[in-house]
Design brief:
198 residues, alpha+beta, Glutaredoxin, 4-stranded mixed sheet, two-stranded antiparallel sheet, 8 helices, globular, isomerase
């Protein structure tokens, strides 16, 4: 049986990155034992009003201080430490908040070419570890080329429609993973993901 995994997430969400990395490791284990799995990503934007002009991107730490107050650094420090224990790099000092619409569109393009997982993984690392501006078209083109995804401007309308579908479904936070019909919220452990897949 082929497992079907649907992950609703945002590239700019630290918990989504952690969930994806844990799921990625669980998938590698299951596939190494001959298991088959199909992964579908659904887009969500935690900051839909973030600037889509790359010149207006803001340092993420500054945005966090403005939105969450002086204690913002404590939660990012916890996430950074948690990630470090699992080999996931969070560099909030380099990260910039920019609109993730085009990144989600690129994942859709990559999916049509059979490379959605690789593209999502590279975009997460680009955002959280490399501090790259994901609203910048040149940056996205380079990342697509790295992963072997042929660039196209297709998919904007379909991405908008799916974002709206996710919004109207009642989802207010991510990540949410649906594995073989069972819904899991948050960054579940690798073992939990593996148990659902295998």
């Amino acid at each position: 049986m082929t497992s079907r995994i649907e992950m609703t997430m945002d590239i700019a969400c630290g918990a989504s990155y952690l969930a994806w990395d844990r799921l990625r490791r669980a998938l590698a284990r299951a596939r190494a034992k001959g298991g088959e799995a199909e992964v579908v990503f659904h887009p969500f934007q935690i900051a839909p009003d973030a600037p889509d002009d790359p010149a207006r991107a803001e340092p993420l730490e500054e945005v966090h201080k403005r939105v969450f107050g002086p204690s913002a650094g404590e939660s990012t420090a916890r996430m950074t430490a948690l990630g470090a224990r699992e080999g996931v790099v969070y560099d909030y000092g380099k990260a910039v908040l920019a609109n993730t619409f085009e990144a989600h569109r690129l994942i859709r393009v990559a999916a049509a070419q059979g490379r959605a997982e690789e593209m999502a993984d590279r975009l997460f690392r680009a955002y959280f570890a490399d501090g790259l501006n994901l609203a910048d078209s040149d940056t996205l083109r380079k990342l697509a080329a790295e992963v072997g995804v042929a660039w196209t401007d297709d998919g904007a309308e379909a991405t908008r429609a799916e974002l709206e579908l996710v919004r109207t479904s009642g989802i207010r936070g991510v990540p949410i993973s649906k594995i073989n019909g069972r819904t899991l919220s948050g960054a579940q452990s690798e073992e939990t993901f593996y148990g659902e897949i295998s």
